[in-house]
Every structure is written in structure tokens, then in C-alpha cells.
Amino acid sequence: MYVHTVIARLKNGSADLTEDPTPILPPAIFQCEKLWQERGRRRSWSKEQWAYVRSAVEPWLYARIEPEDVHRENGLWHSERAIQARSIQLLSCSFENGPLPIISAYAEFQLTFDRPLRDTGELYDWQEQTDWLDWALCFGFRLQDEGEWDATWEHGGIDFELIDPNDAITGHPEMIVS
């Protein structure tokens, strides 16, 4: 068995808003929306605002991979139904659709395979032989009622990257927020 650290990146993910999430949103999320509206045309958060937004939004994020049988039959070794993210980092947040934000974020997973994978290319080769992990990725918000709002409903892309197991999610070069 070979344990690999894999990063899943969700770009501009938004949840299905056919139901109104506002009754179950924590007050800090509404404060973030208000800060976003006050920013006007500026494209970036101030350092202090971004720290507040991350501290308000990240605790409500979840990410997991729910492998299909084809993944298990072709070398992904996990007995549990879902593989929970070890860590999640919010990279961007927009409230243009209302108080449940559009997010870009990374999630770090440890996945066990029956073979060593040397790099992200081999991870993608494995995915082509089985089924793409993006169909198995659940990434979104778990709110006060424990309901989940999956931000992969509509998104600008999902990527997976195999990283060195000694790198922590916060040490990944692309994860630094300026």
C-alpha cells in the first residue's frame, strides 16, 4: 500500500440556490457579505478583511471524496465510504450570488493506492483508467442545521495534484494569499 497526499482544487464553486440558505447561515457569513458589498469595485480584500472572511467561512467548509466501485477495483484502497479532507484552505470568496459565497479552495487528502504514483501525471493516468475523481468530490458548506450545500454544483474547474507528503497545505506555493 502506498499513501499519497493529494490536493483537490475547486475553482469558483457555487451551491445550488434553489432553496434559500439564509435561515441557517451564521451571522458572521452575513457580515462577510456586507464587507464584500462595501468593497465596491476593488478586486481584493484588505489583509484584515481577508483574515476575518477566512475565519468566518472556513469552519463551515467540508470536503470529502466518495469513491466509486471502479476506483476501488483499480487500486484506491479505502474501506470507508467517504474519505474526509485533512485540511481545507479558502483561496477566494465572492458574494455576488448572495450570502452563500462562491468559493475557490484547496482540500488536502491522504489517499492509499495499491501502487506508487510518482507525480500528478501518473495520478491523471490512473484517473483516466478508472473514473475521474472530480465526480467523487464533495466540496461545500455544512451549515448550522448540518445540511450540506455542495459547491461543486456549478464551478470553474476541479483539479487534483499529487504533492510531496512532507508539504503541508499551508506550505504549498500556490496557496499563499497576498
TrEMBL record:
Name of this chain's protein: Uncharacterized protein
Q: What is the lineage of its organism?
A: Bacteria, Pseudomonadati, Pseudomonadota, Alphaproteobacteria, Hyphomicrobiales
Q: Which domain of life is it from?
A: Bacteria
